[in-house]
Amino acid sequence: MKKAATILVLAAWSLAAQAQSICNSGARIVSQNGTYWVVDGGNFTLKSESADYAASLNNLTITGTAGLALTASSLLPLSGNWLNNGTFSPANGSTITLNGSSAQSMGGTGTNTFSNLTLNNTAGVTLGSNITTNGILDFLNGILTTGTYSATIGVSGSITHAGDSKYINGKLAQTFNSVGSKSFPIGKGGSYRPLTFQYSGLTGTSVVTAEQFESGLTGTLPSNATLLTSGRYWSLSQLGGSAPQYFVSLDATGYTPTKTVLILKKSSEGVIESSATTTPNYTNTVALSSFGDLGLGELGCVNPTNGGEIAAAQTICYGNTPVPFTNATSPSGETGTLEYKWQSSANGTNFSDIGNSNAITYDPPVLTASAWYKRLVKVTCESTWLASNVVKVTVNPATVGGTLSGTETIVL
Fold first, then answer.
1. Residue 406: pLDDT above 90?
2. Structural contact between residues 344 and 371, judged by C-beta atoms closer than 8 angstroms
3. Cα 162 to Cα 136: distance, rounded to the nearest angstrom
4. Mean pLDDT across the chain
5. In 3D, which of 140, 127, 194, 137 has the Cα closest to residue 166?
6. Percent of the chain with pLDDT over 90
7. Residue 11, preceding bond cis, omega within 30 degrees?
8. Is residue 335 within 8 Å of 299, Cβ to Cβ?
9. Is pLDDT at 7 greater than 60 in this prediction?
10. CA count, 13 A, side-chain hemisphere, 251
11. For residue range 333-370, what is the model confidence (pLDDT) as tens digits?
């Protein structure tokens, strides 16, 4: 028998005969340092004994119901493709490591459920069927591309060492049976765009699936929002569970917001709603309860439809102070934060700005001549000011003193 098998095919119809001949001869099937594989009772089992050689399996094909079983703590390195058309039974703690130097694939008609799965291939791995990892999905090197399939993490599973150039390109599903937070290291087109998902309320068991896309969120935006991540959105869905309440943190790497950031969520009906976020990690401040496509937006700029009204016109004596101008009617129709400034005029036509007058009301100074006033308003992210009505403060002229001569009669 060869020291390192290039292709290992486990066929139910021939497994018993193979077991008899291999066990009698004591041959090693495939091994790594300090371990080797033998056929024992219809299963290939890893033995922690001295081996004659060390090697990774190349292509592995599993067929038949006897299939392949791994004992606890078994380590199976694979430099070729994984094809399971039979039965695969991994004990808790066993690990399959994909460590090829060229692109690898995983597929087959059988159920591909692993205990631990390690990716250590810079050329990447592509799925040809769904996979589930109930232990640790470890990203040492390479990208896992799911295509039309998905990679699912069991309720007790986890993902380690993911990051830029080491993530899931496609659909990642994670299982929740209680409230809590999990990271989704996903991306698309060579770009790493992770999100963090946290259930704050959940009844039952829920499988949350996330996928990222390098295109903008489509649909009609709310009147108060513009799209920030014009080349990026995420799709979230879930199966099982009820009464969901969740928070999600989205990645804005590469974008520089200039306004208040929003989370935008499109429902299955195509309606886009906006939610306020925290800064700087852009997490919704109020829990969401439905799923759909999500992106990041900014609070839009909509000026008021009117400048409001101020009060009131008045007449004062020379050298007196007018009564402060009050807000008779507030501006309306705006989206955003309002800012104000006041202007005055000596002739009612030519107005100039008054310094330090950025309030909805204004206290004018002592006047010795009539003057006209108005208030300007806009949202902070707009440049066009809207004016209120104009009010006039009439100043009566100063009384000029004189002298009495002769006899004057004053009638009271």
1. no
2. yes
3. 12
4. 85
5. 140
6. 67
7. no
8. yes
9. no
10. 22
11. 887 789 999 999 999 999 999 999 999 999 999 999 99
Rg of the Cα atoms in the chain: 37
Distance CA 75, CA 56 (A): 10
pLDDT of res. 411: 56
Place of tokens 């707009």: 382
Burial class of residue 389 (count of CB atoms within 10 Å of its CB; 0-12, 13-18, 19+): middle
Number of neighbouring beta carbons within 10 Å of residue 24:
8
pLDDT at 410 over 80: no
* One-letter identity of residue 16: A
Per-residue pLDDT tens for 191-249?
999 999 999 999 999 999 999 999 999 999 887 788 999 999 999 999 999 999 999 99
Over range 89-108, report the average pLDDT.
94
3-class DSSP string for the chain:
CCCCCCEEEECHHHHHHHHHHHHHHCCCCCEECCEEEEEECCEEEEECCCCCCCCCECEEEEEEEEEEEECCCCEEEECCCEEEEEEEEECCCCEEEECCCCCEEEECCCCEEECEEEEECCCCEEECCCEEECCEEEEEECCEEEEEEEEEECCCCEEECCECCECEEEEEEEEECCCEEEEECEEECCEECCEEEEEEEEECCEEEEEEEECCCCCCECCCCEEECCCCCEEEEEEECCEEEEEEEECCCCCCCCCCCEEEEEECCCCEEEEEEECCCCCEECCCECCCCEEEEEEECCECCCECCEEECCEEECCCCCCCCEEEEECCECCECCEEEEEEEECCCCCEEECCCCCCCCECCCCCCCCEEEEEEEEECCCCCCEECCCEEEEECCCCCCCCCCCCCCCCC
| Dihedral over Cα of 342, 347, 348, 349: its sign | negative
137-158 pLDDT, tens per residue? 999 999 999 999 999 999 999 9
Confidence of residue 163 (pLDDT cuts 50, 70, 90): very high
Beta-bridge partner residues of 97: 77, 118
